[in-house]
Specification:
about 140 residues, mainly beta, Lipocalin, seven-stranded antiparallel sheet, about 10% helix
Length: about 140
């Protein structure tokens, strides 16, 4: 699996679930998020990559568990624990061209900010690579 394809799948799957018992402490509005991905590979050097996005996070997206998430058919949650103050989850993503990404995440929500860390293993034709993602987000105003 291409390391940057793994990054794309990861970014698209960062936060969200179809249904949960407790609404997370995320205020609706415009959110700027930053993700820095570090991938360690014995085969090739891969420099850290930072991705910044801005999106409108609506009350509906939060209520549906879709805040910060674009659906990805390639990924499946294997564990989910969503609370008002954060979320822990594990997921596995498969690349149609072969390879998988297995990751564990811990995210914290505080109304107008979020932060988190995702650790994972990428199995690819180049061997297993370790991935770490540092995430942060901040509400910047109304949509």
């Amino acid at each position: 699996m291409n390391a940057y394809r793994a990054l794309t799948m990861l970014a698209a799957s960062a936060v969200g679930f179809a249904a949960f018992a407790q609404e997370p402490n995320i205020n609706p509005g415009m959110w700027d998020t930053t993700s820095t991905v570090t991938i360690e590979s014995e085969q090739i050097p891969i420099p850290p990559r930072t991705n910044k996005t801005s999106e409108c996070v609506t009350a509906e997206k939060i209520a549906e568990g879709q805040a910060f998430l674009e659906d990805s058919d390639e990924c499946e949650f294997t564990r989910k624990d969503l609370r008002a103050d954060g979320m822990d989850y594990s997921m596995t993503c498969s690349d149609p061209e072969g390879g998988t990404v297995t990751m564990n995440a811990r995210l914290e929500f505080d109304g107008d900010s979020m932060s988190g860390n995702i650790d994972g293993d990428i199995e690819s034709p180049m061997g297993v690579m370790q991935m770490n993602v540092e995430m942060s987000g901040k509400r910047t105003g109304d949509c």
